[in-house]
Design a protein that fits this description.
binds ligand PMT, alpha/beta, FMN binding
């Protein structure tokens, strides 16, 4: 049955935002709630997969049967992914990873200076976690997400190729879509297929995505 096709499959999922600390009380974050990645984790575990969920700072309960690892920053997420990618069949990057972090986070609270009207923060690039996984010789099947505010299909298609991903799930964000909200829609793209999954609750969308993924895995394996 459909259920059994996920038994024994190992899946690694990233979810939520990353927080990049400026000092002990401030950070740069983003609006990801973690719901999309947690929904995929819940649905995959429900179907019998062995799921490890690397979660950024979110307010969500751990889905039943899922092994959860909490992280805060992109660098912490990267090292957890590095520790786990080689033992899974599939990696799904639903996290909204910060592209940059502070070059020099301050160990003390940054003080407002009376005569300083501008403050310049220097940021440096974070590693691209999913692109790194896609480059490894022992890589799993790699699924990325693309959050775009415009030209969804074109940008996502480019992103899949640039990052060397097997599959990319494109979602339109901004204007009450994608981040934070309960519903989402995805354009699922591989080298050979493009399937539109209509707007629906993130859990049922996750179930539909897993069905597409299952199909691709069967094709890939021949
Ligand atoms: O968490 P929710 O509120 O439910 O919202 C869900 C979501 C909109 C956050 C999710 O569906 C989504 O689109 N996640 C990816 C958001 C994103 O950061 O996209 P991106 O285009 O910046 O990144 C593309 C891909 O590269 C993603 O798989 C991302 O996880 C990965 N990436 C990006 C940067 C980086 N340094 N490392 C990465 O692995």
């Amino acid at each position: 049955s459909h259920q059994q096709t996920w038994l024994g499959k190992k899946v690694l999922i990233t979810a939520g935002p990353t927080f990049e600390d400026l000092d002990p009380v401030r950070f740069i974050g983003n609006r990801s709630s973690g719901q999309m990645g947690f929904a995929i984790a819940a649905a995959a575990a429900q179907k019998g997969a062995e799921v490890t969920l690397i979660a950024g700072p979110v307010n969500l309960d751990t889905p039943t049967g899922v092994t959860r690892i909490n992280v805060r920053s992109a660098m912490q997420m990267f090292s957890q992914v590095q520790a786990h990618y080689a033992s899974v069949d599939i990696m799904i990057g639903a996290a909204a990873v910060a592209d940059y972090r502070l070059a020099q986070p301050s160990s003390h609270k940054i003080k407002k200076q009376p005569n300083q009207d501008e403050l310049t923060l220097t940021l440096i690039k974070n590693p691209d976690i999913i692109a790194w996984v896609a480059q490894q010789v022992d890589k799993p099947y790699v699924v990325g997400f693309a959050a775009e505010t415009q030209q969804l299909a074109d940008y996502a298609r480019q992103k899949r190729l640039q990052k060397g991903l097997d599959m990319i799930c494109a979602n339109q964000v901004g204007d009450g879509q994608g981040f934070e909200v309960d519903e989402n829609a995805l354009l699922v793209m591989t080298a050979t297929d493009e399937v539109a999954l209509p707007k629906q609750a993130k859990y049922s969308l996750a179930v539909a995505l897993l069905a597409q993924l299952r199909k691709q895995l069967d094709i890939t394996k021949g």
